[in-house]
Amino acid sequence: MEAITFAEAWSNLVLLGPEIWQACLETALMLGIGLSAAVLLGGPLGVWLYLAQPGQILANRFVAGLLGWLVNLVRSFPFIILMVSLVPLTRLIVGSTIGPVAAAVPLSFAAIPYFARLVEQTLREVPRGVVEAAEAMGASPLQIVFKVLLREARAGLVNALTILTISFLSYSAVAGVVGGGGIGDLAIRYGYYRFQSEVMLAMVLLLVVVVQIIQLGGNYLAARLDKR
Amino acid sequence: MIHLNNVSKRFRHPDGGWFDAVRATTLSIAEGEIFGLIGFSGAGKSTLLRLINLLERPEAGAVLVDGQDLTRLSASELRRARQNIGMVFQQFNLLANRTVAENVAFPLEIAGWNRADIALRVAECLEVVGLTDRAEHYPAQLSGGQKQRVGIARALAPRPKVILADEPTSALDPKTTQSVLQCLADINARFGVTIVLVTHEMGVVRAICQRAALLDGGSVVEVMDVKQGEVQALSSAARDMLEAA
Ligand SMILES: Nc1ncnc2c1ncn2[C@@H]1O[C@H](COP(=O)(O)OP(=O)(O)OP(=O)(O)O)[C@@H](O)[C@H]1O
Ligand SMILES: [Mg+2]
């Protein structure tokens, strides 16, 4: 690799501007789909997993065991293997195996149990006595979930979502390399295959900044929501 | 108002054996009464109290509250019946992410009241416990005594016929204890709410109860009358307890 001046590197990056922007959009799309799936499906799954634990309002050994086992099963797959093994499913759902939407399938698959586990752990922080007070007042299980558990744990849930977002920003880079596009893919294509290290560096810096922003935003929101 | 008819409750121990927390117990509590449940730690006071709103389901026996046998109700009927039975806890159990007013509104939301009625009722109840000026505070910003007043206002909000209180003053200092007990006595006098109060202190029984059951080993040893602030105890166990207190 030849050394280049800062000015040359900068002009290379400027030339790549539209492609970088495109890569950002692709990453945002992958993350958007993955995180939505995590919240919409993994959230309820996590609540159910929590409620099925012994001593909770829907306690059921069998359900708790089964859900816990499923969550662990999917979570134990290395992400790259999960991606490859889900290729047939991806083709079935999306009709293609390349592009950010296709990459979002294995991402969602991994994000759902991950978030479910985070939600379950977070809800454990709600004192049992508070749930019991709601039961004593005649609250239904649904009212307990929405008015007590989710509301009391809301700051923790925001933290869980922050953790999920940051983890999956990095997963999405892996997904990108195997045909998903996005920031990680761009970094590899130019930085690794074409020896344009400045592109790799720029993409990594971009990710560093984005991660910091997500974490700060998450912390701020959680602190605002926490009245304990 | 409350009739416990031969109720019993046992818990399974981790080692597989059974433990009788409440042995076949029959007890009647009259409407408008402040009734104490007293005994040493582990005597079964909390379990007996929790049998009254079926937070613990008895193995046997009937639990009649306001003429209804709670053990025979379906889940949704039981929820409706519970809206008629307020509960106050030693650890307050307030919702930390809700303001004082929102905490008091909680049982009313559960019961499906409309917004306007809720606002009126919340204001009334905060007035009763003297916390009108704290309506927009969060529980973390209150003292223990204030938290317990919120707990009482919350229990009172749906106009229950019965309030169950499990050691409502055990987390409070003596002075605050007096004011919280006074608050409960006021509510009993003004609204005729029947109150069942668990305590391990004879002082609390003397202060506000008309009668009290002494529990030991899961059984009622004696139901004592309280006259002019003096507990009328016959059994030796009750006298021991009186001397200890
Ligand atoms: N959920 C439970 N599982 C197993 N054992 C229990 C359970 N709840 C209560 N017990 C046991 O039942 C007995 C009576 O408990 P209970 O809480 O009613 O006593 P208490 O009189 O309220 O005592 P304290 O003054 O300490 O609160 C105790 O020995 C306790 O260990
Ligand atoms: Mg107790």
UniProtKB/TrEMBL annotation, chain A:
Pfam family, one: BPD_transp_1
Cell compartments where the protein resides: Cell membrane
Annotated ABC transmembrane type-1 domain residues: 24-218
SUPFAM superfamilies: MetI-like (SSF161098)
Transmembrane portions of the chain: 28-51, 63-86, 92-116, 157-179, 199-222
Cytoplasm is among the record's keywords: no
Family named by the database record: Belongs to the binding-protein-dependent transport system permease family. CysTW subfamily.
Name of protein: ABC transporter permease subunit
UniProt source species: Craterilacuibacter sinensis
TrEMBL record, chain B:
A GO molecular-function annotation: ATP binding
UniProt GO BP: amino acid transport
Top-level taxon of the source organism: Bacteria
Ranges of residues in domain ABC transporter: 2-242
Entry annotated with the keyword ATP-binding: yes
GO cellular component: plasma membrane
Record keywords, A-Z: Amino-acid transport, ATP-binding, Cell membrane, Membrane, Nucleotide-binding, Translocase, Transport
Entry keyword annotation includes Cell membrane: yes
Stored InterPro entries: AAA+_ATPase (IPR003593), ABC_transporter-like_ATP-bd (IPR003439), ABC_transporter-like_CS (IPR017871), MetN_ABC (IPR041701), MetN_ABC_transporter-like (IPR050086), P-loop_NTPase (IPR027417)
Family that this chain belongs to: Belongs to the ABC transporter superfamily.
Function per UniProt: Part of the ABC transporter FtsEX involved in cellular division. Important for assembly or stability of the septal ring.
Name recorded for this polypeptide: Cell division ATP-binding protein FtsE
